[in-house]
Amino acid sequence: xxxxxxxxxxxxxxxxxxxxxxxxxxxxxxxxxxxxxxxxxxxxxxxxxxxxxxxxxxxxxxxxxxxxxxxxxxxxxxxxxxxxxxxxxxxxxxxxxxxxxxxxxxxxxxxxxxxxxxxxxxxxxxxxxxxxxxxxxxxxxxxxxxxxxxxxxxxxxxxxxxxxxxxxxxxxxxxxxxxxxxxxxxxxxxxxxxxxxxxxxxxxxxxxxxxxxxxxxxxxxxxxxxxxxxxxxxxxxxxxxxxxxxxxxxxxxxxxxxxxxxxxxxxxxxxxxxxxxxxxxxxxxxxxxxxxxxxxxxxxxxxxxxxxxxxxxxxxxxxxxxxxxxxxxxxxxxxxxx
Length: 338
Ligand code: PEP
Ligand code: MN
Known about the structure:
Blueprint: E1 2-5, H1 11-23, E2 27-32, E3 37-42, E4 60-64, E5 84-86, E6 89-91, E7 97-101, H2 108-121, E8 125-127, H3 145-158, E9 162-165, H4 172-178, E10 181-184, H5 192-200, E11 205-208, H6 215-227, E12 233-237, H7 255-262, E13 267-269, H8 271-275, H9 278-290, E14 295-299, H10 317-333
Parallel strand pairs: 7-8, 7-14, 8-9, 9-10, 10-11, 11-12, 12-13, 13-14
Antiparallel strand pairs: 1-3, 1-4, 2-3, 5-6
Helix pairs in contact: 2-3, 2-10, 5-6, 9-10
Residues 103, 129, 133, 185-186, 208, 238, 270, 273 line the site of phosphoenolpyruvate.
């Protein structure tokens, strides 16, 4: 910790701070400037009471940690990119991974038709919500276990691994029985007990960014997964809440280089929740691919106008095939392949 004292404090006030630092089990190193004194306190924060309490002392201006608060997700802990395996798909390697499918699983015909179409166009993971986090309790809540069974059937027919949302700790075993990747949604991004339950299933976890989550908070939420013995974590940017209402959310593509810089875990972009409008999805996909994202999570529906959730943002099967073609030069420009 770096403790900066206020200017022109007395020797006695300085001595009191040094005494407290030692009492808490840290070694103080004093640097005296012309007007101010800075103290470096050496010691392991995880085994001692935090020095942050010094912020409340009148003679202290600031207390700043030297070490990052996240460890296992950090690039320092693992300098090379880590990869996550789901079925035959590897995320975070040379291949750019496209996960595609409907917002919600609605019927056997809908999910099977979509699965075949997205596979043909080049997707290597099938998405589909069985438990849906809806803003209103009066909206379609998902087919639940029936939806999971339909996803499993689509996997059996196409060989595509499946990603689906885990909404509650109570469902962890059930959802893990069917899913190849557990999606933790925006609304649950800081539900730490849910993150622990997801980690303990041993399945790969895709952690969406919370609506109002800072990058550091997102990394710390991811840390819960790695700290619970599950190294198979992916981050997923899906737009944050800002003043802008033209798009559903503001898709923060700056999260790509930020996560790449801070962490070794793959970063996926979800342009569908990100912009909330099907006509803008392709442009965001191109941007994400060019900027070095490891993959995309895209909502695709055979008949978006009749979708039971998120109708405005789902692309058609034909639209998805065209998008995949248009995406190719951007994937290649980033040194990746489909
Ligand atoms: C979804 O993927 O359909 C979804 C509900 O995502 P988010 O948690 O990002 O809103
Ligand atoms: Mn959706």
